[in-house]
């Protein structure tokens, strides 16, 4: 049996070199079966087979208010604070039922079949141990779905990082000029990351008030 190993070290930054390498080495990489080992197990004593992984769309958001950092004592309450505005925008991307509010986001989402839901529910999953292992008191997510369905078969939205203003030691009464966030969506079958990315960019611009300028930069997806 001829076994080929491909070690790829750029996955966390979107694998910028992988596609070109694969296209240039089709004969070298030709195979009857491809096995991806970057998957998880439900437990050390539970052999697990992963049949699919969620896709991704990733963006950076930049919100600009005044042309420089201002003193909150002189300008607070009269000039929009980019961090406050960014937080309000991000808070609107999911609703109280855990659903993503981007227009058209769920149009191509494949619903979980009754057979798949039955298979997932048969997995020996212990929610209390799950919460204890990650140090949380309660779980949350899209209404109407179990934890195992939420973290595998349903799309999600997350803020991966957020920054701006003064973050050093002590205090500084800054009304910042800019605020930033890196955000991502996990995608499910039939959701094209290009389509989702475009819809997201348009939606953020719609949510942005006239008091700030918002720039959305797609990072990578799949």
Name a few traits of the molecule:
alpha+beta, four-stranded antiparallel β-sheet, two-stranded antiparallel sheet, 27% helix
**Beta-strand segment tally:** 6
Radius of gyration using CA atoms only: 22 Å
Strand content: 15-25%
Question: Helix and strand succession?
Answer: HHEEHHHHHEEEHE
Low-confidence stretches: none
Given the structure, what is the number of helices? 8
Shape: globular
Q: Could you say which structural class the secondary elements and strand pairing correspond to?
A: alpha+beta
Average of per-residue pLDDT values: 93
Termini separation comes to: 31 Å
Largest sheet: 4 strands, antiparallel
Widest β-sheet, arrangement of strands: 3-5-1-6
Fraction of residues in H or I helices: 25-40%
Summarize the structure.
The protein is α+β, with helices and mostly antiparallel strands. The chain is built from eight helices and six strands.
Secondary-structure blueprint of this entry?
Layout lengths: L17 H7 L1 H4 L25 E10 L5 E2 H4 L6 H10 L22 H8 L5 H8 L12 H4 L5 E9 L9 E2 L2 E10 L5 H15 L5 E9 L1
Antiparallel strand pairs: 1-5, 1-6, 2-4, 3-5
Give a written overview of the molecule.
By secondary structure, the chain is α+β, with helices and mostly antiparallel strands. It is built from 8 helices and 6 strands. The strands form 2 sheets. The chain has a 4-stranded antiparallel sheet with strand order 3-5-1-6, with helices on one face. A two-stranded antiparallel ribbon has the order 2-4. The chain starts with 17 loop residues before the first helix and ends with a strand.
